[in-house]
Amino acid sequence: MCWRLRKLMTRQNLVLTTLxxxxxxxxxxFFLLPLVIIGLFxxxxxxLYGGVxxxxxxxxxxxxxxxxxxxxxxxxxxxxxxxxxxxxxxAMTVVLSLLLCYPVAFWVSRLSPKTRLFFLFLVxxxxxxxxxxxxxxxxxxxxxxxxxxxALMGIGVISQPLEILYTPAAVVLGMVYIMVPFMFLPxxxxxxxxxxxxxxxxxxxxxxxxxxxxxxxxxxxxxxxxGGAVIVFIPSVGNFIVPDLLGGARGLMIGNLVEQQFLSAxxxxxGAALSMIIMSVVLLVLLSSLGRAKKAGV
Amino acid sequence: MASLExxxxxxxxVTPEGGRVAxxxxxxxxxxxxxxxxxxxxxxxxxxxxxxxxxxxxALDSGSIRLDGxxxxxxxxxKRPVNTVFQSYALFSHMSVARNxxxxxxxxxxxxxxxxxxxxxxxxxxxxxxxGGRRPNQLSGGQRQRVALARSIVAEPRLLLLDxxxxxLDRNLRxxxxxxxxxxxxxxxxxxxxxxxxxxxxxxxxxxxxxxRAGRIEQIGTPREIYRHPRTRFxxxxxxETNLFHATVxxxxxxxxxxxxxxxxxxxxxxxxxxxxxxxxAVLRPADFSLADQGIAGRVTRAVYLGSDLQLYVQxxxxxxxxxxxxxxxxxxxxxxxxxxxxxxxxxxxxxEAA
Lengths: 298, 355
Ligand SMILES: Nc1ncnc2c1ncn2[C@@H]1O[C@H](COP(=O)(O)OP(=O)(O)OP(=O)(O)O)[C@@H](O)[C@H]1O
Ligand SMILES: [Mg+2]
Prior knowledge:
The complex is a heterodimer. Chain A is mainly α.
């Protein structure tokens, strides 16, 4: 009996392995392999016209941390600054889209089923058109002679056009715009699953609305908030399209640097090193904030 | 000393189809300061709506609710000295059991020491000592029920509302909790308003039962009054098993009246308040009958085994509806098809005030 069971188990394992093999292979080839290549490139020397030379070179990372090429030993943390700025922009994007979506999620969850469905459809509508086209639309809205400024000047709120385009504000605005659906959907799902009886129980036990919000509603929807924050934060840090179109010099982000290294500067190893740094920093930020959320008791 | 006074409470809902439902249609109810009152009635009769009106989650269209003389209308739920045990328990899954239980004190700003002591004693009252560190999802259904109970009594409310708190429990646990709830209520010395649609539960636990029907109160009384002296046919049929006899009073002899059903079955009833020629509906419970040598003649059509008792369905020879009779099971218990005579003590028969 025992023997047969074991035989069955091994057969089951065999079936499982066979079924999972293609997936494993796919992930291995298309996900892990590029990562390994990038990791490898980041410690090689740059080729003259792009590509790499197969010799070890550690100044890719040294440059990022401020020792420009290791030649004149001048400490200049320009890349670190851009990295920090990118993290800041991403954090702002998370906070703003959260503030925008959280109340709306509550509002939507109270709509009638039909209206609710229509609203959810509206949220996903932007996915039907190209990201670049939509960002160009923002360019037209924000530029000095654009829609926003002419409207504001038309009604006499301002006399001079606002300088929004090519500022950090424009970058954050654009990223919030792109990321809102990604923030909204997990938030909405958490809010919609919130048991109304818990809110009533809290008030019944003497908690006012503010206490109920902070002690019950917020912690109960925290998984949705964390999910939305992670999904928005990761692509925001490495985003390069939005700063490219709306950012100008002061809105440059770390993603733009990576793009430049690969496409125009033709310094693949440096671009690879930047990518590795982005990845590890994002990973660190996520792990620490998830750890903190866990300690807070979610 | 009156604790809760509800006067002419009305509340209606508009259904999605555009109809109008009177969930509370003129409710008058007084609950004493240390009374266990049960709201009993079929689904949709307005029990939950009445509780929610008391706890403040549902406003009245008209009428008033007073607690110890204070009108509650202006108070939001969190300012009412009333707590609720929810049917779904509604425990906070992100908090420990102890923090759940202490929640009412936490939001009132009671300091940590006093809170811990109160939580400890509330947990002890419901038999959950030492469970404070667990999460609600690490408890059984009965334990969760107890946590919900402890949470609702920790702030010493003057009135506890319980909306079908036992309906999710299995039979044994439910009976055990019924006894514990009743004991707890008399120990705490506060009023309980308890909702159920289990009539047995209502009979065993309550000081008084409020039978509701379609937003109105059909009858209020002690369990014995409700069971022995139902005012209406609805109450008689809703509480316990009932045999109804529609008869006309033939003559009155002293304390007894002789009545006759349409089929000609002769019945003796208590004469109080009856006139000759009056049409009456009499209630007799299955246990009121005994098998005898004379009385209503009939034939057993079905005998259902209930453990120590048998439930007999007896078709009267004269015709009319089957009579349900409880008989002791034993060697000489009648079998299906046996001819029997049913007798009862005339005082056991109860004549309904209204049909
Ligand atoms: N929010 C609401 N909107 C519309 N109708 C409602 C609402 N709440 C209750 N009702 C209606 O009011 C009536 C009374 O409902 P209530 O929940 O008080 O019944 P109940 O006695 O508690 O029933 P049950 O035993 O099934 O819990 C029902 O007809 C119900 O459909
Ligand atoms: Mg109900």
